[in-house]
Fold:
Amino acid sequence: MSKAPIRVAVTGAAGQIGYSLLFPIAAGHVFGPEQPVILQLLELPVALGALDGVRMELDDCAFPLLADVITTSEAETAFGDADLALLVGSKPRGPGMLRADLIRSNGPIFTGQGKALDAAASENVKVVVVGNPCNTNCLIARHQAKRTNARNYTAMTRLDQNRARNQIAKKAGLAVGDVNRLVVWGNHSQTMYPDFTNGFIGDRKVTDLITDTEWLNGEFIDTVQQRGKAIIDARGKSSAASAAWAALDHARDWFRPTPAGEWVSMAVPSDGSYGVPEGLIFSFPCTVDADGEYHIVQGVELDAASKARIAASAEELVGERDAVKDLLV
Ligand code: NAD
Ligand code: LMR
Structure:
């Protein structure tokens, strides 16, 4: 192994998402076939036994790129010099709940982990919050960012983008790999806006190929907004493999330049673009440059309906921010 290993911290590593997430990272899916990694895995003390089983399985895969595995219930140990932190560990919602119902139980986790990250991680650590409600949990963790780069605190809406791409490809009867610039704006909640108006399939606009506007404005948006609930209703548990895969996509696409012409959905700290209040963690169309910096795509044309949907999601996030005011002091 010639390159210095990249340190990846994963919280909730013995949970269902963790179990799907760790093996592809160790196999090179995120950083490529030349880049060694060290996995730094955080769990609650009660789950350290299960985590040890996961570590044994990682060992038994004999991944050539896996330089080390650290398992711990100490957040600062898990985040030590981390280059990437995937914050998954938190409660999932159950049937009949909204993600926002988790805010009071999960929110405080992100105060402590934000402090630990800021104390121990690499200054430029890239943070991806998966635990729900992920936008506001990210806001809480980012509030602790004094030393680490506060721009680099993001939340995951890539699963929503992937869901949207699949729905559009199926409706058009075309390959999902050809669906592009189909991004999700806003909160990872029932107000998210999968923006079909700017999407493409190959070099054709989605709206040229799918002329059923009733479906686009109705069933399509509803399906994407409610997909998490549909999976919980069907499985009795929230999405795991697809969520892990989306986290891998988010991370991989943040460590490489975005291919020309493509956009990725990332919930990032708003800089006021598109009228979204500054500081909210909001999903925008983004691109990543050769230095691994993301940029919010500017100048996206939005019709009145799109603007209204984006404003509604921002308003919901303002409400969530108000509900955790005590965690933002
Ligand atoms: P899970 O219950 O299977 O696993 C969660 C793990 O986190 C458990 O092993 C638990 O011990 C651990 N944990 C809890 N509190 C912790 C803490 N303070 N520190 C470290 N570890 C802790 O849940 P899951 O299915 O893996 O889901 C995890 C989270 O991801 C949930 O909040 C879920 O709603 C969210 N999620 C988000 C998305 C998204 O698109 N953003 C998608 C799917 C799931
Ligand atoms: C999802 O979108 O599948 C996750 O956020 C889990 C959930 O609670 O819906």
The radius of gyration is 19 Å. The longest strand covers residues 281-288. Residues 11-12, 14-18, 42-44, 47, 88-93, 109, 130-132, 134, 156, 159, 188, 238-240, 243 surround nicotinamide-adenine-dinucleotide (ligand 1) (CB under 6 Å).
